[in-house]
Specification:
40% of the residues lie in helices and 3% in strands. Its cofactor is heme b.
């Protein structure tokens, strides 16, 4: 047996997004980890906050790639850069011949300049943070020609330092080093740029549809004269046309005006502009070797002296690899004339001079422009002045998008320049110990006496924080610049001065608090007084001395308003859900969602342009959700509010000082946490049932119930459909889907084609949810409602399994599609298979629950083909044919289809699109003549009547009975139950025997509702007898029998220890056995076979043995391509974090064959340490494709962490092992019976990691000195051999599943 194969077959582990940068804070080094202890309550709280911020970056930004301080620091990288600068490469030779060459300095300065120079101050977009110059569109900008070759030159350096060195840092450091290497002045280096994984954030810089929507230029014929917020005058350039404006080629004065405008958009003044242009052009040359590129002949076609980049040709000075001020002396001392250069473009050459130098029209502008001229003269006369200004201008160019100095990292903090004026530094925080409790109390007293302060204080806090930009990390309420111009003059801030004045008495009473903290604390208190969630307050802000830091931060407006709203959310780093939530208007006497309730009901003519924009299709689903659910609004509003109030509290590139803060003002108060509703509601589920029954027959005007008296009104069919569609997303392949989590409330499920109008069903349930609050989950309410509806209409039910725990969003349904995550794991739409999607997807069509009701995509109206689709789709849910026919026919005994017209919305006021005019599926009609009563008419009609297809009122193919006056229908997927030869006899049985149908339907419905709930032990109900007995598909284990004598685990453990003492190979053998046994566990649907356990290497007994292996069906490992997808998926399904999943790859190897594997990897057998990861990183050993996948960007930082910190690895491994060994020991929905267990076996056995004695061996081929005869014959048998070992040592009488767990603990202690 090869361990590598058995490991990757069972240990494809993967999960929640929590990978963090392996280098923490400033001055971090490779292999080090500083920060909170994950084994303490406080540490877990801090890590949870950090994880939330990391997940925010994943969701809202592509900036999730490489960053950090590389091994050896940036100083080591500098040395490699210097070597690269003068080492010419054949694929793209360096400029200049000796003695001044070869030299890539000019090229690398251009790369850094063009990467950083895309920054624009108007909205903070652009810049080299993200390193997006590697991707389209920037990579293909006209101005960035040949910079792909510059980055190719840097690739060996990037590969050497790996993920700890971002491309953004490497590019800017290379340009800075090139200047310094050639004698130029630099201030220092601010590291910490975080690479984007694609160029999507540059689309808005153009050329793209997104750019033209926000800031049109080409589309309105202005290319060459583009206006702000675009940075350059021409999309695709960095700044301006070098030959002069489009309509004024060769005109230096006009070029000067363009330059001033373009550099001002980057925030540069005239002095900075002249310094950066002239200083930068001290180095390198232009490339335009011919008019018809590619130029030259082999072997130098298009490279070396034949390079064509800009189409201009020549250097600016005679010393282009040395720092001088010759650029300025030449510019002013020589006479220049224009002409056509070798590249066919207008450029300038000196008159009566032998120097082979050039200027461009944009250079001549620095002497022709009357404002630039005296600056150029100063730099020509005084090189020290130039050096001072250029060093500062270059540092600004490189760091404009990096925000405050607090975000910079460097192994040598002194190499980070002091905070610059354009970073708008705040005063140092004082060490004053502020007691926020009485301050918060005083604010609350003010609100209690005058409720208008709710609006005033919440508005003040939001306006103060609303300047924050996630694009360049500027703005925010830290500094409280809202007190000064220009912010206090912005029309949007009207009324904030009065709110500030109202807080003055608080400031007088408590002078130690800053205005910034006071404003935020007042906002928090106001939001909570208005019924918002309790939110932790993080103090420590300071006050700015003026409002200069607000320059460029004024609100931006575009046409139409929907573009403004979208742009503002993106710049602030808010999701659409969060951005819309912040439109809420908190008030004491109204629900927080009152604004949205009024918005959806308002006459559009009475709304503002911005309010109407919120009703556009892009935001309308969110507005509707908030109008219907105050809880959903509160969740999104709180997340958005905390983001806005704390995002400017920087601690390194990604850290935040608030992550480690606690809020003493909320001691004893339940503060904002991710809450997941579940429980037994007050009065029990029986009380909820009574409320449901009332709701079922009480029609509401906003969405009237089906059917007229005497059979109506009745919402039964709608509620059965809601429960069915919530639960029916379950798929057996990986346990994903189902109604546990109640994710049908969120996108993507909420917007699936099959779930049309189910938002209205949930709106009908909202009063019940509000009545019972957090003790009743949406998942339980939805499934209980469907079950109650069946029972209320006379149908058969088994009972109810409660205990579903609500998710706070729909992210776990992204795997079900449509989404990029789903297409990566199980492609369908992207490979043209929509309508014939394959497992692990549940339905045949993404967005449906199972199949197309009218028949397969390519076989509309074909019942036989539909039957095949149905069998396939229901089998993916684990259903057999009998269950499938029972659930379809029994479910369709109730309710009707809705497709009232071909062009919805149908009907006229006041019933447009509702009541008889409802359009849901596009099919129209009921299946039976008694659609609110349980019968088997569905089956008798299906078989007794003749059916013919036709087009229904909704325009879709459906079936009607021939020669019958009954107004009933069937769908192609219904006719399939008689057309399919396997389904037909089952349908005949149900038509003939309603009691058989009732028996099968009741069981099938309970399975449909509870497939994702795991074992019966997870169910809760105030009446345990109402929980059905364990079903076969729950694969119940035998009841635990009380042994005559208590199990003596101590003796058993001692005996196992003796086996290990005799043969150390049993360490890996026992660990392998235990992991194999536990590896089938799935957190998605809580399924497992017998497993073995350890609680932080403690043992928790009490397992029982199954009588067969039926419970393992569907639990075999899943493989996807590429391997990294398999690993990630398996971690997620098992409920492991990425760190835990990666740690488990290091399970020790041992035994006869596995010794060979250990030797191949240069690892000692039967030992647990981080050496596995050290070797993996070094490529020191033979690793398979799944292990090599750990070196992909997604997992590499974790591997690096473990390689550098054995203690960290051992701690994470223990946590992961404990989780795997005990996760299936259920005690209700969330509890675990092992939580309260102690390990008596450890009272006599020491828990230290006992080092294995590795003796020298003279045996050939046995490098680790193991006795090759020990246990070999047994271990070669794989699992069977391991069983033989245990059987041979089972002198104690207890369950072998428990023995396995105890074996593991002893083996774990040894490793």
């Amino acid at each position: 047996m090869k361990w590598s194969k058995s490991l990757t077959a069972l240990l494809l582990l993967g999960a929640t997004v929590d990978a963090t940068c392996p280098f923490a804070g400033q001055g971090g080094v490779r292999g080090s980890m500083t920060g909170p202890n994950p084994h303490t309550e406080e540490g877990r709280r801090v890590l949870a906050k950090k994880k939330q911020r990391q997940q925010r970056r994943l969701v809202h930004s592509p900036r999730t790639g490489d960053y950090g301080i590389p091994e050896g620091g940036f100083a080591a990288v500098r040395e490699d850069i210097k070597t690269m600068l003068v080492t010419s490469q054949d694929f793209f030779p360096a400029d200049f011949e000796p003695p001044i060459g070869p030299n890539y300095g000019g090229l690398m300065i251009r790369l850094a300049w063009h990467c950083s120079g895309s920054y624009r101050a108007s909205d903070g977009r652009g810049g080299c943070d993200g390193g997006r110059i590697r991707f389209d569109p920037e990579l293909n900008w006209e101005d960035n020609a040949n910079l792909n070759n510059a980055m190719k030159l840097l690739e060996p350096i990037k590969e050497k330092y790996g993920s700890s060195l971002s491309w953004g840092d490497l590019i800017t450091l290379t340009g800075t080093t090139a200047i310094e290497f050639m004698g130029g002045p630099v201030l220092g280096f601010c590291g910490g740029r975080i690479d984007d994984v694609d160029g999507s954030d540059s689309l808005i810089l153009g050329p793209s549809d997104i750019q033209e929507e926000l800031s049109p230029c080409k589309s309105i014929g202005q290319q060459g004269a583009c206006e702000s917020p675009l940075g350059p005058t021409t999309v695709g350039l960095i700044y301006v046309n070098p030959a002069g404006p489009v309509n004024a080629t060769g005109n230096p004065v006009a070029s000067g005006l363009d330059i001033r405008q373009a550099f001002a958009r980057m925030g540069f003044n005239d002095t900075e502009t002249v310094a950066i242009i002239g200083g930068g052009h001290a180095f390198g040359k232009c490339h335009g070797a011919c008019t018809n590129p590619p130029c030259g002949e082999e072997p130098l076609v298009g490279i070396g002296p034949n390079t064509f980049t800009s189409g201009f040709e020549g250097a600016w000075t005679t010393a282009p690899t040395t720092w001088t001020n010759l650029y300025f002396t030449n510019l002013l001392a020589l006479e220049w004339e224009s002409g056509i250069g070798p590249g066919g473009n207008l450029q300038w050459a000196p008159v009566n001079s032998d120097d082979d130098i050039i200027m461009l029209t944009s250079d001549i502008a620095l002497s022709a422009d009357p404002e630039y001229l005296p600056i150029s003269q100063e730099f020509a006369a005084d090189i020290t002045s130039l050096e001072e200004q250029f060093a500062h201008a270059w540092y600004r160019l490189m760091s404009n998008d990096m925000g405050s100095r607090e975000r910079c990292i460097n192994e040598n903090p002194d190499d980070i320049p002091p905070a610059q004026w354009w970073q708008y530094p705040l005063p140092e925080a004082t060490e004053t110990d502020v007691d926020y409790v009485p301050i918060r109390t005083m604010i609350q007293d003010m609100i209690d006496s005058d409720s208008s302060y709710v609006e005033a204080f919440s508005n003040l806090a939001y306006r103060c924080a609303s300047t924050y930009r996630d694009t360049d990390y500027r703005g925010g309420c830290n500094g409280a610049r809202i007190r000064f111009e220009p912010e206090n003059d912005w029309p949007e801030n009207e009324g904030t001065e009065e709110a500030l004045a109202a807080l003055d008495p608080v400031k007088v009473e408590f002078p130690e608090i800053s205005y910034a903290d006071l404003i935020v604390l007042a906002g928090h208190t106001a939001i909570e007084a208005a019924g918002g969630k309790m939110m932790p307050f993080c103090g420590g802000r300071v006050d700015a001395i003026d409002g200069s830091g607000s320059v460029d931060l004024a609100p931006r407006y575009y046409t139409p308003a929907v573009v403004s709203i979208r742009d503002d959310m993106q710049v602030k780093g808010l999701s659409p859900q969060e951005g819309v939530a912040l439109f809420a208007k908190p008030a004491v006497d109204a629900p927080l969602n009152q604004f949205f309730v009024g918005l959806v009901d308002a006459d559009p003519e009475t709304l503002s342009e911005t309010e109407r924009a919120l009703l556009e299709p892009e935001f309308l689903p969110i507005v509707t959700q908030f109008a219907e659910s105050e809880d959903a609004l509160k969740e999104s509003f709180s997340n958005a509010w905390i983001h806005m109030m704390t995002s400017d509290r920087f601690d390194g590139p990604t850290g935040n000082v608030c992550d480690a803060r606690t809020d003493v003002t909320l001691e004893g108060v339940d503060v904002l946490e991710v809450t997941r509703d579940y429980g037994i509601p007050e009065g029990g589920f029986a009380a909820v049932r009574e409320d449901i029954k009332t709701m079922l027959v009480t029609s509401q005007d906003f969405f009237p119930a089906d059917f007229e008296p005497p059979i109506g009104p009745n919402y039964g069919g709608l509620m059965i459909r809601l429960a069915w569609h919530c639960s029916g997303s379950y798929r057996a392949s990986d346990g994903r889907g189902g109604c546990d989590g109640g994710r049908i409330r969120f996108d993507p499920e909420l917007n699936w084609e099959d779930n049309a109008n189910l938002n209205n069903a949930m709106k009908l349930l909202e009063p019940i949810k509000e009545k019972y609050g957090s003790s009743l989950s949406w998942g339980d309410l939805i499934t209980l409602t469907g079950t109650t509806a069946i029972e209320f209409m006379g149908g058969p039910v088994l009972g109810f399994c409660g205990g579903r725990v609500d998710d706070v969003d729909g992210s776990d349904s992204l795997f079900l599609g449509p989404s990029d995550i789903q297409e990566e794991l199980s492609p369908c739409t992207s490979i043209g298979q929509q309508g014939a999607c394959e497992s692990p997807l549940g339905p045949t069509t993404v967005g449906l629950i199972y199949v197309n009701p009218a028949g397969p995509v390519n076989a509309t109206g074909n019942p036989v083909a539909s039957g095949l689709d149905i069998r396939q789709a229901f089998a993916r849910m684990g259903f057999n044919d009998t269950e499938t026919v029972a659930i379809i026919g029994g479910g369709h005994a109730f309710g009707k289809c809705h497709g009232a017209c071909t062009n919805p919305p149908c009907g006229e006021e006041p019933l447009v699109g509702i009541g008889p005019n409802t359009f849901t599926s596009g099919f129209e009609g009921a299946w039976t003549t008694a659609p609110t009563t349980w019968t088997n008419l569905y089956f008798t009609n299906l078989l007794a009547l003749e059916w013919e297809s036709g087009i229904g009122p909704g325009g879709n193919l459906q079936w009607a009975p021939v020669d019958s006056e009954d107004d009933i229908i069937m769908l192609t997927s219904d006719i399939a139950l008689s057309a399919d030869p396997e389904y037909l006899p089952i349908s005949q049985e149900f038509a003939a025997d309603i009691s058989s149908l009732e028996e099968q339907f009741a069981h099938a419905w309970y399975r449909l509702m509870s497939n994702d709930m795991g074992s019966r032990e997870r169910c809760i109900n105030e009446n345990p007898d109402d929980i059905p007995p364990a079903q076969w598909w729950q694969y119940p284990l035998p009841a635990m029998e009380e042994p005559e004598e208590p199990v003596d685990y101590v003796s058993a453990r001692t005996m196992i220890q003796g086996l290990i003492d005799v043969d150390s190979n049993n360490i890996a053998a026992f660990a392998n056995l235990a992991f194999r046994c536990a590896s089938t566990y799935r957190a998605t649907d809580y399924r497992a076979i017998e497993s073995a356990g350890g609680n932080d290497m403690q043992f928790c007994g009490g397992r029982v043995d199954a009588v067969d292996g039926a419970g393992s069906i569907g639990l075999e490992p899943r493989y996807y391509s590429p391997p990294v997808v398999s690993i990630r998926d398996d971690m997620q399904v098992k409920g492991l974090t990425k760190h835990e999943g990666v740690a488990l790859f290091a399970i020790p190897t041992g035994g006869d064959d596995d010794v060979e594997v250990a030797i191949e990897r240069n690892l000692p057998p039967n030992a647990l340490s981080n050496q596995y990861f050290v070797n993996l990183l070094a490529g020191d050993g033979d690793f398979d494709e799944y292990e090599m996948a750990l070196l992909e960007d997604e997992f590499l930082p974790i591997v690096q962490r473990f390689a550098g910190d054995n203690e960290l690895f051992l701690g994470v491994f223990a946590a992961a092992w404990n989780k795997m060994m005990t996760a299936d020991r259920f005690d209700g929905p969330v509890a675990n019976i092992c939580d309260s267990r102690t390990d008596e076996t450890l009272e006599i056995v020491p828990r230290e990691n006992v080092p294995l004695p590795i003796e020298d061996s003279e045996d050939e081929g046995d490098d680790f000195g193991l006795d090759s005869k020990s246990g070999g014959s047994e271990y070669e048998k794989g699992d069977a051999g391991m069983g033989s070992i245990l059987e041979g040592s089972s002198g104690v009488s207890f369950f072998s599943g428990t023995m396995f767990g105890l074996v593991l603990v002893v083996a774990s202690a040894m490793i």
